[in-house]
Amino acid sequence: MGSFDRCAIVIDVREQYEWDAGHVSCATRIQIQKNPTNWRQDVLALAGGNKETPIVTYCAAGVRAQSAVDMLVQEGYTDAVNGGGYSTQLESICQACFSTSRGSAST
């Protein structure tokens, strides 16, 4: 996957131990695919109430991230994409956010 050139909410859907081993600096860890209590409210709050806000999910290889994207789309999010596996390339999303002054690092 190439680098991202626009700001998006980044959601890490991995387990806590995977997050602890390393994560994208502007990501928030929500295991959407496990359907935790309040995930809908948590994501909506991150998106500022706007379901058109770009969202990128990632995990270790992309499988869990795709499950999360599917759930987001079912909830009406129109710009949710699978970022694939954890990679330093995903940091370009954070850089796009900070260069456009949208969003803040949330870990």
Strand and helix layout:
Blueprint: E1 9-12, H1 16-21, E2 27-29, H2 39-46, E3 55-59, H3 63-74, E4 80-85, H4 91-99
Parallel strand pairs: 1-2, 1-3, 3-4
InterPro entries: GlpE_sulfurtransferase, Rhodanese-like_dom, Rhodanese-like_dom_sf
Pfam family, one: Rhodanese
Protein name: Rhodanese domain-containing protein
Structural account:
The protein has a 4-stranded parallel β-sheet with strand order 2-1-3-4, covered by helices on one side. With 107 residues, the protein is of the alpha/beta class. It has one domain: Oxidized Rhodanese, domain 1 (3-Layer(aba) Sandwich), CATH 3.40.250.10. 33% of the residues lie in helices and 17% in strands. The longest helix has 12 residues, at 63-74. Strand 1 (9-12), helix 1 and strand 2 (27-29) form a beta-alpha-beta unit. Pfam families: Rhodanese.
> Under the CATH scheme, which architecture would be assigned?
3-Layer(aba) Sandwich
Specify the structural class.
alpha/beta
* CATH class category name: Alpha Beta
CATH superfamily: Rhodanese-like domain
Indicate the percent of residues in helices.
25-40%
By DSSP, the count of extended strands is 4
CATH topology: Oxidized Rhodanese, domain 1
Low-pLDDT sequence parts: 100-107
Number of domains: 1
The end-to-end span amounts to 23 Å
- Basic shape: globular
Strand content: 15-25%
Secondary-structure element series: EHEHEHEH
**Count the helices. How many?**
4
Order of strands, main sheet, comes to 2-1-3-4
Average pLDDT: 85
Largest sheet: 4 strands, parallel
C-alpha Rg (nearest Å): 12 Å
